[in-house]
Amino acid sequence: MNNNKLLVYDFKELYEILNEIKNKINFEVLSITDIDTKKIGTNKNYLILTKKKINHAQNQFIINDFPITINKLLDKLNISFLKLKYSEQSQVKVGNYIIDLNSREMIQKSLRIKLTEKETNIIIFIYNSTKPINVSDLQTKVWHHQSELETHTVETHIYRLRKKVKSEFGDDDFILNKKDGYTL
Length: 184
Hints:
Layout: E1 5-9, H1 12-20, E2 28-32, H2 37-40, E3 46-50, E4 60-62, H3 70-89, E5 91-94, E6 97-100, E7 105-108, E8 111-114, H4 117-128, H5 135-141, H6 153-169, E9 176-178, E10 181-183
Parallel strand pairs: 1-2, 1-3, 3-4
Antiparallel strand pairs: 5-6, 6-7, 7-8, 9-10
């Protein structure tokens, strides 16, 4: 079993059915009668199974198309858990920002900028590095160019990315150029 939790909200009969077959499903099933967003908000691996939309809760799976077979319900729940995992993995926290890999956006609070694929790759590559990254490394790892090429492509992309970040977020220090290379 993985660490996914299905929170069955105010639906005792369905909870009892799912609890009976708990050995055949790949998520934990819990019955809840109250939505405490402070408690569940820290755990992202949950779905709330409910009969109607709950305004202040996230990760809801609303079941309102009855009758439904248990196999079809389990398929839909598994798909919803996969979507949650995909969504969670698509967001990378980089300093004060969130990089959404799916939409290629850089987000800080309510502000967002669109990123190109190369800009996203540059940020993620530098972010994942434990040491400063030089131009040659970026050419070979992000652009897949040979390091001997004479080009200013990397510097141009870094310049434009810095300009974009400064314009929208007012951040002059997002990508720093140190003696040994670029860092975030």
